[in-house]
Amino acid sequence: MNGGRLASGSRVAIIGGGIAGVGMATSLLFNARARGCTVDVRVYDGGDPSAIAPPAVLTPECRSRLAALGCRIPLEWRAHELRGVEVISHGQREVVPGTPGGLWVVDGWPQGQGGVALVREMLAGAATAQGAKFIQRRVERVENQPSAPDAPAAVRKCGPLIVRAQGSGERFHAVALATGAGPSLGDAFFPGFQPAPTVAAVQARLRPASLQAPTPLARLWLSPLPTVDGLWLLPGAQSVYALAFGPAVTPADLCQALMMAARDGLVEEGFELTAVETTRLPYGPGRTLVAPGQLAVGAVALGHPLQLGLTETLASCSRAAVALLDAGLEKPALERRYVRDGLAELLEDATAGARCIPWLRRAGRQAPRAFLTARLRGTSGGMGGGGVLGLSAPTPLALLSSLRWAGIRETLASWVHTTLEPLPTTIPAMEPDLYYIVDDDPEQREAMTQLLESTGARVVAFADELALFCAVARRPPTAILLDVVLHWVDGLRLCEGLKQHPLTRDTRVVVMSGLNRPHVRQRALDAGAEAFLPKPVEPERLLRQLLGLVPAAPAVPAPSALTEESGRYAS
Description:
By secondary structure, the chain is an alpha/beta fold. Helices cover 32% and strands 22% of the residues. The protein contains 16 helices and 24 strands. The strands form five sheets. A seven-stranded mixed sheet has the order 6-5-14-15-16-13-17, with helices on both faces. Helix 8 (344-363) runs parallel beside helix 10. The longest helix is centred in the C-terminal third of the chain and has 21 residues, at 396-416. The termini are far apart.
């Protein structure tokens, strides 16, 4: 140690082995070597691997940062380049043009690793080459315990911070937290630590039905459902990565939004949903990010759901490394150099980006145009502070201003006139004697198919509900027999979704379920079903219902119509 700063022989622990963790290790070792000192860096990589391997979007600035850290970017990573981001809201679409130099989508899934894992592997190789060591242990807490004056010299020179990881404890001079936007250590990192707030998200991989060339556009669909603030659709070479976010978003919300996206042509029909996983996204800036010798980097420190790329994460790692090496380890020095000077622009962007989310919903149909209006107000100024959507423009602050005006105009317009729902240019005619059966029980599905076909009807049976919206929109049936308990989305939600779209709202829906409860029956009718049939379905009742010949319920006799025999016991 040299005057409270990191010096040759200083020990630094980095908690988290993702992009932020290996980026921090590489930045710290690179900058330390440039200053003529050797730092001992240990990366604790004990997190659970994600079931979903997200692709990586590399902006020109991100590629420059990787190259500066000694990473050699393979030329094949340029195989899929985006020319922009299409923003969709309430039937309106606008394309925000891409950054000069292009947005590269790096992805090896499903044959290999996802893009984020590939970039992480490249950074880890660069860090290892410079001396970083990786420890496969989960960290429980960090303690600030200066060694006793009579402790051995070997202990006193190892630093005051103790990292406790699965029963072991090691001393360090500095500790960086880079665990991402998931569960963080909280006060176990240091008392009063306040990381970036987060919002719920669900991610998935879609395998297309055919191997067509990937679209050159990423898509951001705003407010497709009341519980979904936004749906990202990022095309890869052989798949589509989907990410839905919102305070209460669930896997069922993502699946229903993807069904709607296929119906509206945003993803290819007939896709296969290979994996679904819940996650968290940063939703603004952290409030308390430093303590003596300790700081947070990456998504645990700042971010917002409109970010697309790794630029902000790598920028925070670079500035954290410089602060640790130049400013010293005391809290006031770290606060000034890292937070106020280094992260000021990024924190401001994170605040504005998070505030944009509710205004995107308020802006409604005018939200896509607001992106283009904000883009004309200039690009990002500083190095590291980028625009939204992975582009240099619009900046989060410019977008927030534009969205506020768009939201006010949309509100005033709703007071003056009622917004008409956009109608499709063509609505396919209903096909008589065509019936759809949606049931994940093969025996029930086969039995009902044979019953209807015995009457001369044509039947299409679905073992999976994901293709239902597309099928009904393209080829409207006479009626749909819809089970309640399905694999991805329950039948009651599907019925409600069918009744809300102009292409499918006139289709007859009969809901069936083994959950023969009054509240389930009422929910089905409230969702727009014309009838609810308990399972196992009675064949005669099913045929009468589909032919419109269901008899009325027997009338309850009035008290005056009681027989003389029964009237004896009336009082």
